[in-house]
Design a protein that fits this description.
Elements: H1 14-37, H2 40-52, H3 56-84, H4 86-106, H5 110-138, H6 142-173, H7 178-181, H8 183-197, H9 212-230, H10 232-235, H11 240-262, H12 276-306, H13 311-317, H14 319-340, H15 343-360, H16 369-395, E1 399-400, H17 404-439, H18 444-470, H19 477-480, H20 490-494, E2 497-498
Antiparallel strand pairs: 1-2
Helix pairs in contact: 1-5, 1-6, 1-8, 2-3, 2-6, 3-4, 3-5, 3-9, 3-17, 4-5, 4-8, 5-6, 5-17, 6-13, 6-14, 6-16, 9-11, 9-17, 12-15, 12-16, 12-17, 12-18, 14-16, 15-16, 15-18, 17-18
Amino acid sequence: MTTYADGPAAQITDAQRRTRWLTLLVLCLGDLMIVLDTTIVNVALPSMRADLGFSETALAWVVNAYVLTFGGFLLLGGRLGDLFGHRRLFLLGLSLFTVASLACGLAGSQQFLIGARAVQGIGGAVVSVVALSLVMTLFTEPAERAKAMGMIGFVAAGGGSVGVLLGGVLTDLLDWHWIFLVNVPIGVVVFALVRGLLPVGGGRPQTGRLDIAGAALVTAALMTAVYAVVGGNEAGWTSVRTLGLLAVAAVLLVSFLVVESRTEAPIMPLGLFKLHNVATSNVVGVLWAAAMFAWFFLSALYLQLVLGYSPLQVGLAFLPANLIMAVFSIGLSAKLVMRFGIRAPLSIGLALAGAGLLLFTQAPVGGSFVTDVLPGMVLLGFGAGMAFNPMLLAAMSDVEESEAGLASGVVNTAFMMGGALGLATLASLAASRTGHLVAGGAQPVEALASGYHLAFLAGAACALAASVGALLLRTSSATDHVSSPVETGPHHEQGCRARTLATEHG
């Protein structure tokens, strides 16, 4: 088992430094499985419907069951990691996700598949939130942390579109079962490598006890809210069911806040949101997630249903954006952060993504890839590549190491809730516009295109609003313009705060 020195980053040997980066690659591979699973399924849904006899309503639960448990258990998973050890919880979540993936791949009935997807969501929530905490613990030097977060950012940004490509390849060449079965060998390999590489002290457990009442209330509130959101299109946004569920979620959330304000060891210290960057970055994250979900899901539907692309062609259409994001993740994003700080790259990246979505609002029926799809994909690739590293750094800034898992859970929850709510809202806008035009005598394809155009416009508005919000982040003069790694002393290293870019000299 590898252990690392407790002193300054400069005292870490070259071998230990290489091991840390190898550990990061393994953590990214585990996290990539989780990110892929949010989009890889969508391309295969028609095959699942034909094979297992799903109705249109029941088919949606192949996605919704995963989103429901994933969104509900993020915050709890982060806190459990803080209390019982990030390494231990990562391995537990990875095992749960891998076993559930095997169950999904072997599923022969609707009920079994949906149940296994729900279990997948729980495992995925734990892996996703704890992986980010482990990265923040392993990399404390600002230059290295910026590079590490750039790789995590690429996984988060590029994984979704890679999922569309991989889903098309596996579904076309094999069958839908393999979009789940492919996770099994990957999960086994990641488990073995993490056990061997991750230092015993990496993400060691903190003292304290679990806030049972708070954990139950916040998990119930999040799951109820997600359930209301994912069913909003089917039941109607003003229906008794949707409004009733949202009211229940609101009551549970208020009860949670009351409990947290009174307990001695809260699962989510409310003082966390007094930290300006944490609160601001979570609002920006909600808006950005809505725009990202619009890109991943609605553009895939647009390409398939309006332009007539096959699943494999849809995946290939995302390739330029993936390549651009890969270039940023390799080191370009980290250099931008070290040179200009957080605010400028984040704001500019979000603005570029908004511009890319605006270009999609002009894509006509029967348009060509080069003139009508590629420009938007390129801008979205640049925007996502620039934005994700500083976004994650800002969300984890000024948080004590003992609460890294909690902060990770909060930002991941904000992303999931923002994405789920944004996607449901934008899909509802698209469906409403399409239905209205069809009722007025428009051709179905033209009506679909117009509906997606409206949704892209709303997604662009979210991205541009997030760009403005990013300018409200607070960074000191030292973090606005960092040209060299900041030295850290032993005392700063041992008691360091998970800052965005360290401004203290040891």
